[in-house]
Amino acid sequence: MKALPRRIAHLDMDAFYASVDLLRYPELRGQPLVIGGSNAQQPVVLVDGSRCFSRLRDYVGRGVITTATYEARALGVASAMGIMKVARLAPEAILLPVDFAAYRHYSRLFKAAVARIVPAIEDRGIDEIYLDLSALAEDSRSLAQRIKEAVRQATGLSCSIAVAANKLLAKIGSDLDKPDGLTLLAADDLAQRIWPLPVRKINGIGPKASARLAELGIHAIRQLAHADTALLQRHFGRGYGVWLSEAAHGIDDRPLLTSAEPKSISRETTFERDLHVRDDRETLSGVLIALCRHVAEDLRRKSYRGRTIGVKLRFADFQTVTRDLTLAAATADAHDILRAARECLRRVPLERKLRLLGVRVSTLATRADEDDPSEPRQGELDLTKR
Ligand code: TTP
Ligand code: MG
Ligand code: MG
């Protein structure tokens, strides 16, 4: 039986950081706005309650912007541009500092809203996700429309979505009709809509590869699709050469990575006042025991064990140090973790006061990964310094 074609969507928020900031400063709507300043660009509230914003023409200094509204992009501004260059292109544009806490908050909100409609989601970072729509009955257009509305309801923000046969095409597609786009790509759209695009629109062809392709006279995806695979392999190696050719033909079988496997599990705490290792010995010891117990509980709840135990300390002057060690066998036991954490702490000079203490367990394995159930639960401490 032939497998049914997949329906994969890519969703990407429009001018994400700038759009989140516009929720707070709606009076800036319609103006060119650039995000990337420091605290000096924080708006000032005047006596009459109105706000005074920094303009780029007044900016002197280094740094790059994170993003810009579409009004600023119309003036030639783009992500990752130096602020001084942006100031020359758009002197009247407004500059705001980044506010990562706000972006993370809205990122969680839009992902939760989509998850209520589509359960199979691959998280691709702060403002984008892949969705597998294959198991749903509803047609792609009304589904995509419903997802866009849910995102707008939950956040007040717009996004662009494409639905295609795979991740590669969906990712290219979501960028085709920004902002507020809804793009459906069918198999026979490849030549018409994908092939005219420059090769760097393919996620996985970066600046280096596209420069080398340009040296071979290959600029558009159509040219890449018609290029001899053997030639591509000679210039880019066997694997990448084949991949380039397949990508240009819109072939991509990668599954969605729906449940992100954690690389580590950790707990940390910042003290209400800075603590001294000698004078506050008992408090610190209690905190360390509690952190190890919490990490052990997290590990057990998620059915993980870990072999690498680490500590993190931040001193009153904000200097941060970490130490870790690797055990002979993975553990989820609070006593094992505590023993190893204390061993790590012995390797840190502790003259200054502490403002933060953390415990991390990494090199994780799930129960299913453990092939030998008879292995000793509590391995010897292997004090190999890393
Ligand atoms: P993007 O999705 O690449 O861009 P965008 O959401 O601002 O605009 P678009 O409508 O074209 O999708 O990136 C998401 C956020 O990531 C962006 O708002 C700011 C941040 N970012 C950077 O900090 N530096 C960068 O170079 C890029 C590209 C993005
Ligand atoms: Mg975006
Ligand atoms: Mg993005």
UniProtKB/TrEMBL annotation:
Site (Substrate discrimination): 17
Keywords noted in UniProt: Cytoplasm, DNA damage, DNA repair, DNA replication, DNA-binding, DNA-directed DNA polymerase, Magnesium, Metal-binding, Mutator protein, Nucleotidyltransferase, Transferase
GO annotation terms (biological process): DNA repair; DNA-templated DNA replication; error-prone translesion synthesis; SOS response
InterPro entries registered for this protein in UniProt: DNA/RNA_pol_sf, DNA_pol_Y-fam_lit_finger_sf, DNA_pol_Y-fam_little_finger, DNA_polymerase-Y, DNApol_IV, PolY_HhH_motif, Rev_trsase/Diguanyl_cyclase, UmuC
Main location: cytoplasm
EC number: 2.7.7.7
Basic and acidic residues composition bias: residue spans: 374-386
Annotated region described as Disordered, given as residue ranges: 367-386
Top EC group: transferase
GO terms under cellular component: cytosol
Entry's Gene Ontology molecular function annotations: damaged DNA binding; DNA-directed DNA polymerase activity; magnesium ion binding
Record NCBIfam families: PRK02406.1
Function: Poorly processive, error-prone DNA polymerase involved in untargeted mutagenesis. Copies undamaged DNA at stalled replication forks, which arise in vivo from mismatched or misaligned primer ends. These misaligned primers can be extended by PolIV. Exhibits no 3'-5' exonuclease (proofreading) activity. May be involved in translesional synthesis, in conjunction with the beta clamp from PolIII.
The name this protein goes by in its record: DNA polymerase IV
